Amino acid sequence: MIATAWLVAGKDLRIEWRSRVLAWQVVPFGVMALVLSGLALGPTRAGHSSAAPGLFYLVVLLVTLLAINRSQAIERTPGTRASVATLGLDPAGVFLGKTIALAVELWVIGAVLLAGTVLFLHTALAGSLTAVPSLVLTLGALAAAGTLYGALTGEGAGPATLLPVLALPAFAPLLIAGERAFSAALAGGSPWEWWVITLVALVAYLAIGVLLYGVLEES
Amino acid sequence: MKQLAQRLLGPVTLVSMALTVWLGLVVTPPDKVQGDLARLVYVHPAVAWVALYLSFGTATIASVLYLWPRTRSVVADRVAHSAMEVSLVFIALTLITGSIWGRPTWGVWWAWDARLTSTAILGLLAVGYLALRRANDDPTLRAKRSAVFAVLSAINVPIIHFSVLWWKTLHQGATVFTANRSLLIHGIMAWTLLLSFVAFSLAYAWLVRARYRLEVARERLDNEAITEAIAARVLEGRS
Predict the structure, then answer these.
(1) B82 at A interface, C-beta within 8 A
(2) B195 vs A158, residue with greater confidence
(3) Domain boundaries, given as residue ranges, for chain B
(4) DSSP string, B9-53
């Protein structure tokens, strides 16, 4: 399972590295969304807003949807599913591999967006850096959940529009936990309880994915 | 016996509902503090019980049975689908009756309360389940994917249940029992409340049964249409 996971993760990341879709489409979209969030608040409020962690995570969710669609698009290219089936790869390993690759991509995007939040929404640099562990954890949970929801919508009609309908309600607890942890970090408080919620979600999604991804692959 | 029970389900549901309405609106006294507004207690908790636990629980168990290879059957898929559709109706009723109570009590139709928000999210997940079913034409693919989604969505149910303890927002905690299991509601009010739970549970069973039969009829119609189309093509080939 672990060997398959590294194989799939390496494959996805190499495809991403060569195609540069993340760098040229997803990251610019995220930065643009962050700038628009600042404009929506207005120039005076954007710089001092307590809404910055919420706006940051809202943009993260939008970008995550794009990244999930991108991750699943790789699987939809002609012959990919047949190749996976022929090679007899362990579905749990495929799930973990795709989750790892998506998590790495989201961590890169998250770093850029966090820098954008410091720059455009004037969040304190020290507080923002304190929020990094919770961001890593939240994005990891989003990657695990996203891989599952992406596979669910993969071959149905209108996967790009179906994904937000299925995934966003499920992402809501992660958005709340992430935002609260970020706010606590900025205020100098303790984000532990929010870390626990995120960690539980991460473990739950990983467990369900390992158990059920094979059923989706069977389909 | 089974057929008799199925035949009696509708009439028994109607009688229990009528009794609940009569007891709730006529026989039981108004509350000392909330007056007639408290009569919503004979609707809202029972509707929420059906929405969150009975129907979502049925959909989840039926989905798990479908995912388990030994118990996989089209019956489990139909039950999950029917239960989830009825669940959406009851979630909407839960939110509507909650809002009707919330407006005079809290001063707003909607509050960003943990239980309200998590229940609304569960409703959106039920909408997602139905959207997912419509997006897949292949019956096996549809059944598998919707079963996985139902299991994933069920994670939200314990969050809703414990939300009043974890976040301590506007929605009150346990209303019927105290922490040490003693009743907070007594006499005719308690009996009416109990009857409302029975009545709405029966209504749920009746609706799920009706939806299940509708699904079977729809599948039969689809199969007949396919058979007719094949026969027409065969005739075309012969002529």
Answers:
(1) no
(2) B195
(3) 12-28+38-206
(4) HHHHHHHHHHHHHHIIIIISPPBTTTBGGGGGGGTHHHHHIIIII
